[in-house]
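Entry 14. Ran structure prediction on the chain below.
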Amino acid sequence: MKRYAYGWLTAVFFLVSIVGHWVFGWFAFVDEQQGLHQAPHLTPYLVEMGRDTFENWQSEFLQLIWQVVGLAYFLYVGSPASKENDDRSEAKLDALICLQAGDKAEAILADIDRRYLRTGGHSKPHAHDEIERAARD
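Output, C-alpha cells:
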C-alpha cells in the first residue's frame, strides 16, 4: 500500500474531482432547466456533462496524461535510452567493487541490493558479464 501511495492519492483526487464535477453539474443543470420552466431529465444532463467532461479532457487532461504516462513508460519501463546511462554507471561501479573487494564482491553487491530494495539483483546491461570477468582476471 505504501509503495503505491502516490497512485492511490492520485486516484482519490481524480474520483473526488470527477464526482464533484458531475454533482455540481447536476445542480447547475437543474437551475438552468428551472430557469427555462422545464423539468430536469437525466438523458440531456448525461449528454451535456459527457460533452463537457470530454471537452475538458481533450484540451487539458489528455495532454498531461500523455506527458506523465508516456514519460513514466519510456523512462522506467521500456526505453533503452532511459536505462543506458544508469546501467553503464552501475556496471562500472560493480566492476570497481569487484576489482577492489575481490572475493567479497558478490557479498557486497548482494548487501547493496538488499539495502536498496533491488529485487532480481543489480542491473545487467549487455556487456556486464564481460566486465565482471575482466575485473576478476
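Residues 81-136 form one domain. Will compare against last week's run tomorrow.
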